[in-house]
Amino acid sequence: MAARNRMPPWHEHVRLSNGRELLIRPIRPEDAGPMQAAFTLLEPDEIRQRFLHPMKELSTRQAEQLTRPDPRRDFALVAAEPLPPGEALVGAVARICIDANGKDAEFAILVSHYVNGMGLGRHLMRRLVRWAKGRKVQRVYGDVLESNLPMQALAQSLGFHRETSGEAGLVRVVVDLPPPKPKAPLPSAAFPGTPA
Predict the structure, then answer these.
(1) What pLDDT was estimated at residue 25?
(2) Distances in Å between the alpha carbon of 40 and those of 10, 31, 46, 59, 109?
């Protein structure tokens, strides 16, 4: 029997509709440099939609914060070239952070215009929600610019609803996650020597 090429958790190869292959994987500290370099390739509107304000560069401190998530409450994925971390150009970043209450988690996604419109944002959002469910989060939310209609449409298609964010120019998209199903007890007949 041939050995399967097993990938580490949260790693997967995807082929986009344009034929480009990407590796989706958890963010690594080595991604800081390539992310800073790739930041200059982003369009101003892409930056504003992700960070909610204009930025000219991603500082070393910001890059290190992004690439060193707290494993107890943060999770971040990148979609990058299938090269080693530190060498791979990063085309998308998806991040989720559990609030102090342990019940809510805020997401943020940035997909570069080079790989936009090919289903990558949807794929990454589903992964973030799956991680949140595994952490027993009850609600996932994100603040989106009112002008960012594609992100609002994506969120709505995945079951998110709109709420007021409390900040002018922003819309909050929210999805309530179902509680985990209780595990059914094993029937007593499953244990040898116990009466049925």
Answers:
(1) 94
(2) 28, 15, 11, 11, 17
Phi (first) and psi of residue 119, to 5 degrees: 90, 5
Separation in Å, CA 111 to CA 9, 79, 88, 93: 22, 9, 15, 7
- Is residue 90 exposed (0-12), middle (13-18) or buried (19+ Cβ within 10 Å)? buried
The beta strand positions in 17-126, using DSSP E, are 21-26, 74-80, 90-98, 104-111
Q: Per DSSP, which regions of 51-169 are E strands?
A: 74-80, 90-98, 104-111, 139-145, 161-164
> Distance from first CA to last CA of the chain, Å, rounded?
40
What does the pLDDT look like over 131-180, one tens digit per residue? 999 999 999 999 988 888 888 999 999 999 999 877 888 899 999 998 87
User: How many angstroms separate the CA atoms of 122 and 117, rounded?
Assistant: 10
**Residue 2 banded pLDDT, cuts 50, 70, 90:** very low
